[in-house]
Amino acid sequence: MVVQDIDAMDQSRDRLTELADDAQALKEAAADADPEFGTWGPFLGALVGLAYSGFVSWQVTALMEDVPAAIEAHAIRLDACARAYQATDEDIAAQLAIVNSSLDEVAAAVTQAQIC
């Protein structure tokens, strides 16, 4: 039988949310560190700057664009999973309480029948 540790899932969700915030800060830092087209000067900039802007800058921007949202989405899914496990655990506990109550009633009836 597998028992889900809801507290551990909540801690993981919180950590994922922190990582999403860190990824957002990293995304902003990468955008700030991205050199302007003319950084390398007019001649070298035409060669290096054009290639950099056309490939490296675009790749970094494209990759970093989705990272914070993707991490946050994992946190949301993990939270939904934890809440589903928690609701199931509560439902099972309620059903077991009903069974326990029924068994107590049966035990009382058996005890009363033996006395009479």
Can you give a write-up of this model?
The chain has helices at residues 6-33, 42-115. It is rod-shaped and about 105 Å long. The model has no long low-confidence stretch (mean pLDDT 86). The two termini are 43 Å apart. It is an all-alpha fold and 116 residues long. The chain has one domain (6-115). The longest helix has 74 residues, at 42-115. It is 88% helix and 0% strand.
Span between termini? 43 Å
Give me the Rg, rounded. Answer: 30 Å
Unreliable runs, pLDDT <50, ≥5 residues?
none
Kindly report the average pLDDT value.
86
| Biggest sheet overview | none
- Helix/strand-derived category reads mainly alpha
In terms of quaternary structure, the protein is single chain
Query: What portion of residues is helical?
Result: over 70%
Shape annotation: rod-shaped
Strand content: under 5%
Secondary-structure element order, N to C: HH
Number of spatially distinct domains: 1
Number of helices: 2
Number of strands: 0
Core attributes:
116 residues; mainly alpha; 88% helix; rod-shaped
SSE blueprint:
Elements: H1 6-33, H2 42-115
Helix pairs in contact: 1-2
Quick rundown:
With 116 residues, the chain is mainly α.
